[in-house]
Amino acid sequence: xxxxxxxxxxxxxxxxxxxxxxxxxxxxxxxxxxxxxxxxxxxxxxxxxxxxxxxxxxxxxxxxxxxxxxxxxxxxxxxxxxxxxxxxxxx
Length: 91
Hints:
The protein has helices at residues 9-19, 30-36, 43-52, 57-60, 63-80, 87-90, and strands at 7-8, 83-84. Strands 1-2 form a two-stranded parallel ribbon. It is mainly α.
């Protein structure tokens, strides 16, 4: 067997999205991304994850800002851990 150096994250998420009965837009929504990753996407869980990932305090009080920060940060962490995430999703 050959070791995989990176995972095509987009292909994996698109495959999961196609199999999901909900129309999930994981490219822009942290809630949809977490659902596809089979993680708790509730507001409380997102707030806890944002705190764990060191979201700036000024963003924590605005759920929309926190969600945007969290979406980019989760994708960046996936990339840091071997996921092949396109640059346009990280900016």
